Amino acid sequence: MIGLRRVGPDEFTKGLDAVLDIYTAAMRPPADQLTGRKAIMGNHAVHPGFTCLFAERADGKPVGVAYGFHGEPGQWWHDVVRRAMTELHGEDWARGWLGDAFELAEIHVHPDYQGKGVGRAMVTGLCEGRAERTAVLSTRDQATAARRLYRGVGFVDLLTQFVFPGGYERYAIVGAGLPLAGTGPDLP
Q1: For the whole model, what pTM was predicted?
Q2: Confidence (pLDDT) at 185
Q3: Range of the domain at 138
Q4: What is the DSSP-derived secondary structure letter of residue 111?
Q5: Residue 184 lies in a domain
Q6: CB distance 2 to 55 below 8 Å
Q7: What residue intervals traverse the membrane (predicted)?
Q8: 114 falls in which pLDDT band (50, 70, 90)?
Q9: What is the tally of structural domains in the chain?
């Protein structure tokens, strides 16, 4: 049985090795990126409104992690995505989606536990009760289980075929009104 447990920034930071293990199993990144990824994740814990859920087995071993925070100017992802959205659709549209957004930074489930509702429970659990107007995230722009999950809880494509500066993979930037599942406010 898998349970969800909310952890604060301090416990998250102390558990970064377990977080990185789940990330590595789920995403299979090149080994030379892991040190930088760990530093980025640790830095996310100081952003305003940071919240994290661990999905854990009955013995307490984490098998999934998801976290996010309130997005605001000065954060790398927020600034890069806002610029691209503004260029494509205009400032009002970008502000409508990112002006008061909960940014889901990482959502990962160990492959042995994928397809069992863990990811969905983490996404909906993270977004539940958030005060922000929208939720936004980036995901690989492919027909994956993650893309289906996000669509299933109300996320829509905002940008597709998006390549982050210095990157090579194509991503989709997706967003949803809060609360999830189509019950949020009308968006531009």
Answers
A1: 0.92
A2: 37
A3: 3-177
A4: G
A5: no
A6: yes
A7: none
A8: very high
A9: 1
